[in-house]
Write a structure and sequence with these properties.
The chain is α+β, with helices and mostly antiparallel strands. It has two domains: 66 residues, no CATH class; 68 residues, no CATH class. A four-stranded mixed sheet has the order 2-1-3-8. The chain has a four-stranded antiparallel sheet with strand order 4-5-6-7. Strand 1 and strand 2 form a beta hairpin. The longest helix is centred in the C-terminal third of the chain and has 11 residues.
Length: 147
């Protein structure tokens, strides 16, 4: 995918209303994603957002609760993902920027898209239109918060 201003604006618009914007050439406080950022200041701005590797058990509970899934008790941190599960479902938060919701019988649930949307609304970095989180960093659209 070509790195264009239009595509950058579309990506950044997912974080509308969140205070996650910084500017390349000068220090500032985090700014809110709004119309001005997506038009006048787009070229000089980037998003400072969280890697899914920073997700907490409380974050996972909020996402599952918003999906109407009961609170799970098993929370595992692995090398490439965090798993949050109970007897019925498993939610996997992949560090490379994807959330997957599965029934424990292996069926992918429709809630996967909603889970990704909720994670974005919480300020997490997720893949976008085939661009990995690392590619979004390489394009200069995002920088990840450090632990």
């Amino acid at each position: 995918m070509e790195n264009t201003a239009e595509k950058k604006a579309m990506f950044m618009a997912q974080y509308w209303g969140q205070r996650v914007v910084l500017f390349k050439d000068y220090h500032s406080d985090l700014m809110m994603v709004d119309y001005r950022i997506l038009t006048d200041d787009l070229e000089q701005s980037y998003l400072k957002i969280k890697s899914l590797s920073l997700i907490t058990k409380e974050d996972a509970k909020l996402i599952c609760g918003a999906l109407g899934l009961p609170g799970a008790e098993k929370f595992y941190v692995g090398e490439s993902l965090v798993t949050y599960k109970d007897d019925t479902y498993t939610v996997m938060f992949y560090y490379d920027g994807f959330v997957s919701v599965l029934k424990n019988d292996g069926l992918l649930l429709i809630e996967t898209k909603q889970a990704n949307d909720i994670a974005i609304s919480m300020g997490f970095a997720l893949q976008w239109m085939g661009l990995s989180v690392n590619k979004l960093i390489d394009c200069g659209w995002i920088k990840l918060e450090e632990a």
